[in-house]
Amino acid sequence: MPRSERSSLLLAGLLATAGVAHFVSPRQFDAIVPRVLPGSPRTWTRASGVAELALAAGVALPRTRRVAARATAAFFVGVLPANIQMAVDWRDRPAPQKAAALGRLPLQVPLVLWARSVAKGARRPA
Questions:
Q1: Domain of 98?
Q2: By the 8 A CB rule, do 63 and 39 touch?
Q3: How many other CB atoms sit within 10 Å of the CB of residue 103?
Q4: How confident is the model at residue 123 (pLDDT cuts 50, 70, 90)?
Q5: Could you tell me if residue 125 is inside a domain?
Q6: Within-domain flag for 85
Q7: How many CB atoms lie within 10 A of CB 53?
Q8: Mind telling me which InterPro entries this protein's record contains (predicted)?
Q9: Which of 21-25, 47-51, 88-92 bottoms out in mean pLDDT, i.e. has the lowest?
Q10: 87 burial type by CB count under 10 A (0-12 exposed, 13-18 middle, 19+ buried)
């Protein structure tokens, strides 16, 4: 399997795992939905889980990989406010939890770059 294919499938696996987690353990995601968003946090949790599952499917399929990987990069930028919300909310928690919340912030950069790399490496649709 070529390296670019493996990278695409790993990204799809990460997205699928995160998407499933939104439905298996939604409370942890509900808690980081920025309070400025309208509606129920659970609705946002479910919507982001569905989005991650759809992106996973798109990245996994060569025919849709390029556009899905670009959308994934945008998605990773879009969830940054939730990670910021988590860091703010967890500022008074024990050090390991605070470190985990703060560690999520710079992690968005390599995730965005990874998704862009997958998009660039994907074949153009016929």
A1: 3-120
A2: no
A3: 11
A4: confident
A5: no
A6: yes
A7: 17
A8: DoxX
A9: 88-92
A10: middle
For the chain, what is the domain count? 1
Per DSSP, helices labelled H in the chain are 3-24, 26-30, 41-60, 65-78, 80-89, 95-121
Instruction: Output DSSP code: residue 105.
Output: H
**Quick one: average pLDDT of 53-61?**
97
Rounded Cα–Cα distance for residues 101 and 56 (Å): 24
Residue at 96 is within a domain: yes
Residue pair 75/11 in contact by the 8 Å Cβ criterion: no
pLDDT per position as a tens digit, 73-97: 999 999 998 889 889 998 899 998 8
One-letter identity of residue 61: L
